[in-house]
Design goal:
The complex is a heterodimer. Chain A contains 4 helices and 9 strands; from the N terminus they run E-H-E-E-H-E-E-H-E-E-H-E-E. Chain A is an alpha+beta fold. Chain A has 2 domains: 79 residues, Alpha-Beta Plaits (2-Layer Sandwich); 78 residues, Alpha-Beta Plaits. In chain A, the strands form 2 sheets. In chain A, strands 5, 6, 7, 8 and 9 form a 5-stranded antiparallel sheet that branches. By secondary structure, chain B is of the alpha/beta class. Chain B has 3 domains: 171 residues, 3-Layer(aba) Sandwich (Rossmann fold), CATH 3.40.50.970; 176 residues, Rossmann fold (3-Layer(aba) Sandwich); 172 residues, Thiamin diphosphate (ThDP)-binding fold, Pyr/PP domains (Rossmann fold). In chain B, the strands form 5 sheets. In chain B, strands 3-2-4-5-7-6 form a 6-stranded parallel sheet, with helices on both faces. In chain B, helix 1 packs across helix 2, helix 1 packs parallel to helix 7 and helix 8 crosses helix 13. The interface between A and B is medium-sized, with 18 and 20 residues.
């Protein structure tokens, strides 16, 4: 089960290694990790995605709470609807005879490619930018492969997640 | 107008701030990166520095000081090897939740990361074994960092804190106004809040209605200064109480409700009472693997209440039915008050019913005590020609009246003290329970003796453990520490040997020394102390008396004991608390019900 940990911590040297150390010490694998300052530059928001034993994760969360640098920890199963998740992916696609058309077709099918846009063009490549949930990005990659496009490089930032407020009557999660 | 702050260098501020944090004794060892600080130490009288012979000993001595006094220990070492040598001491303190601040000098900031001489990433090396750590970036932050470090070390679940101090921040040429902060502001450091009253109510009802209540109290009761509250609750409840190795002394070892230590080498009556209880109150204890045996068979009939200051300790091994997060003293006091009210409201019938249930329970406990009890009768058979290790501890108890501060190392001798020296008060029993650090005993005794110069302090050790720290005999001479070292010498790594006897067909792989042991009497004398040797049972009491009659000098009493002796009871791995070896080849009857899958 994929678990998402959303954590608020001091934006200070050493804070991140203390957090990450708790996972590595227990042999717990981190699937993705994203850290950046919040609107308050003295704080950082960290989103960590991990798959593993839920009980062990609960223990890690207790220990995270015990760290001096950590202000708050929230955990939820991925896709449980507690968090809104987004991830940015950059894809460099090779362009040669015929593949430009395939790429254009892919971009037009915006549902399949999560509204990907070309953000840079090289002599023999195009760079795409995609923003979606981590699961959706997986499908996009599969779709690009299925269209016989040659992907030169793929880089993903890891999920960022923010707790959703209780939905109002007029709207919920989209 | 406020008086202008005094101008001090970083090194001077560090020493002054340690003094202002309440440090009286600073255990340490100088070196290049720490020399500005050492020069500042030389020019003041607020903080007394104790020069050890190895930095690991500095950490253990500070730890012993902290355990005996309840005040944080303080350590000062240089960078590189000075810092890394403290790691075992820091890990020892972390495992047993001992408040300590370790100031480790560091190479100058511009050299950090260049593989400079005596450079080690101390923050990185120590990270998994500290409660928190700081690196000083500018001299001006030193007072605030020191203040915060001591606050963190002492509050909540106590623990060691490291301060990494680059040499340039202690430069004597650069002075800054010194102000020791009155308060600490750490927005991300949360301490236990209000105790959950619903859980308190549930716990009260469970305890009042228990037919076979049991109290399991650990080191948290000692660290949380909650002995008085524990005693009151035990008396109110009239329940048997057991202490962990770390908790010994939390409840008076000579009082009738006390059933001895529990766990791996716990008393028969303690382990049996744990296994058969119906309501278990755990306080300041962490259900460690030396306590529970196989967690799936732990206390099968019990509803479990767990009081701890640290949420991370609750539900880690055993999921309690009633978790209570809070300070032991506060929670125990509230429970006692609520219990008093609850029992006072009982009608005559309820009262009689409860009294009968408890009387039956105590009758059962009495039967276990009579059958196999350690506390109310010796469980070993003396011999004419060999001294048994248990006899050494009993002799020590008789000579010191059970009132001494006892430190120990790790192994059989540690367990024999835990079994045969019933501690009457907290903070008298000082040993490395969690990490199990050999070499802890002597430096810890130094810390205790320096804290209480007039107290009787004994270090019970073995010829294995003491050889990890004999260099500290020199420190003891320098500071005139009249520690009594009781060396239970079986010429083997006793606990290793016991396991090799029981599980490895008696193959003593590297647990003996083949006639290479030093003459401990002459070793003690070489360091300027008194050495005594005894190997006949009839001479033991006299030797022990001579040892403690020397009030002013360190005495090293080397006692040659029977090497074949094992520590019993011993839990049988994979079973429950009622599965114990009681002697060589003799065990408690197997739990047929459990084996049938019942």
């Amino acid at each position: 089960m994929r678990q998402v940990i959303s954590l608020l911590m001091e934006n200070a040297p050493g804070a991140l290694s203390r957090v990450v150390g708790l996972f590595s010490q227990r042999g717990y694998n981190i699937e993705s990790l994203n850290v950046a300052p919040t609107a308050d530059p003295t704080l950082s928001h960290l989103t960590l995605v991990s798959s593993g034993d839920a009980r062990q994760l609960e223990q890690i969360c207790h220990h995270l709470n015990r760290l001096l640098d950590v202000l708050s920890v929230e955990v939820a199963a991925a896709g449980s609807g507690d968090f809104l998740e987004r991830e940015l992916m950059l894809v460099k696609v090779a362009i040669d005879t015929g593949s430009e058309d395939a790429l254009l077709a892919a971009l037009e099918d915006s549902a399949a490619t999560a509204g990907a846009t070309v953000v840079a063009a090289g002599k023999a490549s195009r760079m795409l930018e995609l923003v979606a949930t981590p699961e959706h990005l997986e499908l996009c990659l599969r779709d690009l492969h299925a269209r016989q496009l040659r992907l030169l490089e793929v880089v993903r930032c890891g999920a960022v997640a923010l707790r959703l407020d209780a939905p109002s009557e007029s709207g919920g999660v989209f | 107008m406020a008086k202008d702050a005094e101008l001090l260098s970083g090194g001077e501020m560090l020493v002054r701030a340690l003094g202002d944090a309440g440090v009286k004794l600073l255990f340490g060892y100088p070196g290049g990166a720490a020399l500005h600080i050492y020069d500042a130490l030389f020019r003041q009288e607020q903080v007394q520095h104790i020069l050890v012979r190895h930095e690991q000993a500095a950490a253990h001595a500070a730890d012993g000081y902290a355990r005996a006094t309840g005040q944080p220990g303080a350590v000062l070492v240089t960078s590189g090897p000075g810092a890394t040598n403290t790691i075992t001491g820091i890990a020892t303190a972390q495992m047993d939740s001992i408040p300590m601040v370790v100031v480790a000098a560091q190479v100058a900031s511009h050299l950090v990361g260049t593989d400079a001489f005596q450079e080690t990433d101390m923050l990185g090396v120590s990270r998994p074994v500290v409660k928190h750590s700081f690196q000083v970036r500018t001299a001006e932050e030193i007072p605030t960092i020191v203040r915060s470090a001591f606050h963190i070390a002492m509050t909540g679940r106590p623990g060691p804190v490291v301060i990494d101090v680059p040499k340039n921040t202690t430069d004597p040429a650069r002075k800054f106004p010194y102000r020791y902060p009155g308060t600490v502001s750490l927005r991300s450091y949360s301490l236990p809040g209000i105790v959950d009253s619903a859980q308190l109510e549930r716990a009260t009802t469970l305890l009042a209605e228990a037919r076979r209540p049991m109290i399991y109290a650990g080191g948290g009761v000692i660290q949380g200064d909650a002995s008085a509250q524990l005693i009151e609750l035990v008396q109110r409840l009239n329940a048997p109480v057991t202490n962990t190795l770390m908790g010994l002394g939390a409840y008076p070892g000579d009082e009738q409700h006390f059933v001895g230590m529990l766990g791996m080498h716990g008393f028969y009556e303690a382990n049996m009472a744990m296994h058969h209880c119906d309501v278990l109150l755990a306080v300041g204890a962490r259900f460690d693997d030396r306590i529970t045996n196989a967690p799936e068979y732990f206390c099968p009939d019990a509803v479990i209440i767990h009081i701890d200051v640290d949420p991370a300790s609750v539900g880690k091994i055993i999921e309690p039915d009633v978790p209570i997060i809070g300070m032991a003293a506060e929670v125990l006091a509230s429970l006692e008050q609520k219990l008093e009210l609850c029992l006072a409201a009982y009608d005559a019938e309820q009262r009689t019913d409860r009294d009968h249930a408890l009387a039956d329970w105590w009758k059962q406990v009495g039967r276990w005590r009579a059958e196999r009890g350690l506390l109310h009768g010796r469980r070993y058979v003396t011999q004419d020609d060999r001294i048994l290790p248990q006899q050494v501890v009993q002799s020590l108890y008789e000579v010191t009246g059970g009132e001494a501060y006892i430190t120990s190392d790790v192994g059989q001798h540690q367990m024999f003290v835990a079994q045969y020296y019933p501690f009457k008060a907290p903070r008298r029993w000082i040993n490395s329970g969690g990490l199990g650090t050999m070499g802890f005993g002597l430096p810890a005794a130094m810390g205790v003796q320096l804290a209480f110069p007039d107290a009787v302090v004994a270090c019970v050790t073995g010829e294995g453990s003491i050889q990890m720290m004999t260099q500290e005999l020199s420190t003891c001479l320098q500071y005139g520490l009249p520690i009594k070292i009781i060396n239970i010498n079986n010429e083997a790594l006793g606990m290793v040997r016991q396991w090799q006897d029981m599980q490895y067909g008696g193959r003593y792989s590297h647990s003996t020394y083949q006639d290479s042991l030093p003459d401990f009497v002459r070793l003690a004398e070489a360091y300027g102390h008194i050495g005594l040797h005894v190997d006949r049972p009839e001479d033991l009491a006299e030797a022990m008396r001579r040892c403690f009659d020397e009030r002013k000098r360190l005495v090293f009493l080397d006692v040659r004991v029977d090497e074949a002796e094992h520590v019993y009871p011993m839990l049988i791995a994979g079973g429950s608390l009622r599965d114990m070896w009681l002697g060589k080849g003799e065990r408690t009857p197997p739990d047929t019900e459990r084996l049938r899958g019942g």
